[in-house]
Amino acid sequence: MNTLTSFLVCKLQRRQNAVFFVGLCAGISLCLFLTPILEEAPCPSPANKQQLGASNLHFSQGRSLRSQQVVQGNSEDFEPRINLAGKPKKALKVPQNIVRPRYYSSELGLRQKLFVGVMTTTSSINTRGVAINKTMAHLVDKVMFFNNGVNPPRINLTGIIGFSDSRKILKPFHVLKYIADNYLDKFDYFFLVKDESYVRAFNLTEAVKRISVSEDVHIGGFMPDKETAFCSLDGGILLSNSVMQKVVEGLDWCVRNAFSDNDDDNIGRCIVHSSGQPCASSLQGQVFRSQKVDSGFNADTDLKRLRTDSQVIFPVPDAATFYKLHKYFCQIELVELERSIASLQSSILEMHPAIGEVADNITWPVGSQPTSKPQNRFDVLQWDYFTEHHVYPESDFGSVKDLSGADREDMRHILNSSVSHMAQKYEGKLQYKRLVNGYRRYDPSRGMDYILDLAFRDMDTGLEILKRVEISKLLGKVEVVTMPYVTENSRVHLILPVEANQMADATRFIKEYSELCTTSKVICTERRDKLFLLLVLLYDPMAPGKGDNRDVFGGLKSQVQSMVQRQDGMLMAWLSVKSKGQRPPDVAIVDLALRKLPQEAMVLVCSPTMNLRQDFLNRVRMNTILHKQIFSPIPFSEYHPDIVYQESERPKELDINKKYGHYDSANYQHLSFYLKDYVAARSKVDDKFPLVRQDRDIPITDKDSQLPSLLSLFLQGSEGLNVLRAVEPCLRLWHPQQVCQPSLGPNQYLECQVSRAKGLGTRAQLAGIILQYLEEKSH
Question: Is the pTM above the cut of 0.70?
Fold first, then answer.
């Protein structure tokens, strides 16, 4: 048995070995046969295909020997080749840049509250339309008048819209279409009414403020029929923004199904079909009531018959009735206001009985002025962020400023008061640690408001807690200061200092002065005492002077003489001053001009770049008061014309525009005062700075550096004299043609350089010039 088993195992092994050797021989033969074919047309494996396609690289193949060396030998002989065909691929959809709106209100979808559209006619807009505008426009956000003609009448009224389609039946739909195209995204509610209706705009606005904007609103004050779903335009129709959007989508259906001669039916059917909401008289507790009066209504005798809770009264026959109704309802509102004040007084006395003892000496009601509510985005008051040491931002052109002086003392006072209040309120359970955040805002009608975030340590738990405190520093009692009577008939003496390098600007100034006297005959002919121009010619010590053929001011003097001879009534003169190498101070110039002017004269110190205007001269007359006030206006200075007028011509009349100029708060050259006030202020500093009577008395700036400026002279030497310093749109300065001269003195020269640097152009304009220069330089 064992022998048989061994024989069978050996037999089986021989068969397996035979199969193995046969397969091995077949594989070697097949490999030798296919090797030349594979070398001529190599085919990479699927894995290699995927790798090559992912890397976008194709390898160059050589002969069989080189290919074997690349695969089996040194990898340094491997040379890749980048395939850039069709790369990079273009996106199927080009992404668009996101344009951010200019204002937060546009991006957040903030809208105004109420739009009022008035249906009017050409025959009634100049009477009832004007009356509606006077009694309602100041109480709502927007009022528009929709006329039945294309050309509006010539009246002093804005917001008149006419339609070329004269079909009366389609006028309401034209109104809805116009409102949707121009004001749909700007208002929450739209009120439509006819011009025969008086609207109590204040009550309407207060009622609208109490209705949620999230609900569809279709309300009216008068329904001709109790069974109808339409409201009358006579009583007014109030639509929310959501309802108006639905109405706009169904306007085509409304126009096709407008078959009635009554506007109420057409517009009512349109609103109900589009929104699916019938007209109601109340919503969210707000009831709208309109009262219809009979044809015999008399505003002089029948006012007591009107309901005091009505928002709309119709029909109103004429404008006089509008004003009588407005007066009547204003008296009713005044009585209600006085009743609410009395109620507040009684409630305050109940809570604080001690106030009743001094009630006769205080002004009722006891409290504070509420914060001002901005009418639009331009009236929003700015909050300034501050810490214990800094305030952010310091201004529109700065980022941070150290708290110092009065600001720091004020902050410390507010902080200490807040900590004391919190300690008293919580009975010493809180320990002050630090100021986390501080905000302040100045409200001209209220005072200074503060918001403080304070960190305290809870004495019971040991944890740190934050408390927000709001503080108000209210303004003191407002007083009406009596001022002397002033008139625009006062005489103004213009003092114009001129240097040799300012000849071009001085020539233009004299020309404007001549044109002013020519066009305004009342100023210089009938009343010759209105204007007088004194030119102060500042000669350099080495320049040729009077009597010399090379006189630097010879041409200017000839121009003045010819104008005085040619135009009767033009008062002009000049005063020659020989300087000591530097420009004389303005105080010295006025001292030398005293002998040319009467003692009661009103003086205006000018500059050659000033654009002389009659309205500015009237402002000088009204703001300069003897023994009471001097006027120091902040001028609007033009930017460099080569920068701001690159794409347009320089205008003949300087316009107030931020692209063309700026208000130069560092300019103190223009000052108006009375000579009596000047002499009084000058006498108080005469011991330090003697009066300049002749050219040789002019001090040298380097030696007498403490010589005050003209404005500081009044501040130091006058008591009880106010200085009015504010921006003046009527005072406009052309950009000076000359450069800053070292003869101005150290301080004036530095101020001139700084002023010219700030007066070149806006930051955007200067940045554009720099980029343009760099681009040209690179090419």
Answer: no
